[in-house]
Amino acid sequence: MSDEKTTVAELRRAVAEFVAAREWEPFHTAKNLSMSIAIEAAELMEHFQWLTPEETEAALEDAATRAQIADELADVVIYCLSMSNACGIDVSAEVSGKLARNEARFPVEQFHGRFRRPERDKRETTAKDAKGGDRLGCISEARATEIVRKPELR
């Protein structure tokens, strides 16, 4: 099977057959599957946690690491397909619809080369407080260094 020759319906059918052969349908509830997706996504994220962009590229170039990453990604996709089966969600229709909605939310003219809304950048800049913290209570690296060096600020 390859992406070029395999449809979403074929993958959904393969996942459904795998689940049915083991009589796992009673366990494949929306709650259990959504939790499984999150758990497998966390396992995927572990491969990249704390890596620099350069280290990430190197990890993906290493055949053994890439295989582990692909395996975790497959787990996420399998659980997503199983959830679409359990919930009767047409993945292709929903992905197409979501992309259409995102086209309206993130017009190319406004978001080309940027990942944040301009009005959010403006809000966050004005939300910084006098102590160097942001609206979430996070402090900048410079402020953290200052606090570490000056015990009276702790």
Distinctive features:
154 residues; mainly alpha; Helix Hairpins; 2 domains; 67% helix; extended
Task: Write down how many β-strands occur, each being a DSSP E stretch of 2 or more residues.
Answer: 0
Helix content class: 55-70%
Return the CATH architecture of the largest domain. Answer: Orthogonal Bundle
Q: Which H/E pattern describes the elements?
A: HHHHHHHH
Share of β-strand residues = under 5%
CATH topology (level 3) name of the largest domain: Helix Hairpins
Unreliable stretches (pLDDT < 50, length at least 5) are: none
Number of alpha- plus pi-helical segments: 8
Mean pLDDT: 87
Outline the biggest β-sheet. Answer: none
Structure, explained:
With 154 residues, this protein is mainly α. The protein folds into two domains: 8-105, MazG-like (Helix Hairpins); 118-153, no CATH class. It has helices spanning 8-21, 30-46, 53-61, 63-87, 91-105, 108-111, 118-127, 141-149. Helix 2 packs antiparallel against helix 4 (63-87). The radius of gyration is 22 Å and the shape is extended.
Describe the secondary structure blueprint for this structure.
Elements lengths: L7 H14 L8 H17 L6 H9 L1 H25 L3 H15 L2 H4 L6 H10 L13 H9 L5
Helix pairs in contact: 1-4, 2-4
Short description:
The protein is mostly helical.
